């Protein structure tokens, strides 16, 4: 899909702040794709649509998870996790995106998963380090992202888990599984 067409579709779904975040993820994802040899066009499209469902009503996202074959355990964890799988479904249905790699990058951009593909890693990381993100440790991960994709990804998953634990929040098991898989198989 043309970049301008995709951006128009997404802009309608998001707040101005979230749209600016999306533009940051897009630029970062394209640059990571170039650096690590992924398909730049797919990185662009996945980045543009990654938060497509972010502001859908919780009830709608819940309904999608219940009826469209997603893991039901998502519903007993933080609703912040729901926009990723719900987004996959809605982006396919409403924007006509059919590419499995792009849809998977959207689906796993919040929790990750064991055995993440290159595009999934790039979108997860771009979401974490885009220029609009300002939190402790982000600069360190930006540096790592220039050298070693897996190393940067491990650091961002680890930071996310620690951040959630510091706030006494639950951690979705898939997020731990992502961390363990990267430690065992990453570098
Ligand atoms: O949508 P974004 O804000 O750009 O970023 P995101 O989709 O990566 O994360 C959305 C929120 O989900 C963020 O506030 C942290 C939270 N989150 C990420 N992983 C987990 C999680 N929340 C829980 N409970 N468990 C997780 O494993
Ligand atoms: Fe998100
Ligand atoms: Fe993220
Ligand atoms: Fe995001």
Task: List the topology elements.
Blueprint: H1 3-11, H2 16-36, H3 40-49, H4 58-67, H5 83-95, H6 100-107, H7 118-129, H8 138-145, H9 149-166, H10 173-185
Question: Would you write up a description of this structure?
Answer:
With 187 residues, this protein is mainly alpha-helical. The protein has one domain (3-135): Hypothetical protein af1432 (Orthogonal Bundle), CATH 1.10.3210.10. It has ten helices and no strands. It has helices at 3-11, 16-36, 40-49, 58-67, 83-95, 100-107, 118-129, 138-145, 149-166, 173-185. The longest helix has 21 residues, at 16-36. The protein is globular, with a radius of gyration of 15 Å. The relative contact order is 0.13. Bound molecules: 2'-deoxyguanosine-5'-diphosphate and fe (iii) ion (FE) (3 copies). The site of one fe (iii) ion (FE) has 5 residues, from helix 7.
Q: Descriptors for this entry?
A:
binds 2'-deoxyguanosine-5'-diphosphate, Hypothetical protein af1432, 10 helices, 187 residues, 65% helix, globular, binds fe (iii) ion, single chain, mainly alpha
The assembly state of the depicted protein chains is single chain
Major sheet size, sense and barrel closure: none
What is the gyration radius calculated from CA atoms? 15 Å
List the ions, cofactors and other small molecules found in this model. 2'-deoxyguanosine-5'-diphosphate, fe (iii) ion
Q: What is the share of helical residues?
A: 55-70%
CATH superfamily: Hypothetical protein af1432
GO molecular function, one term: nucleotide binding
InterPro entries: Diverse_Catalytic_Enzymes, HD/PDEase_dom, HD_domain, HDIG_dom, YqeK
Pfam family, one: HD
Enzyme class: hydrolase
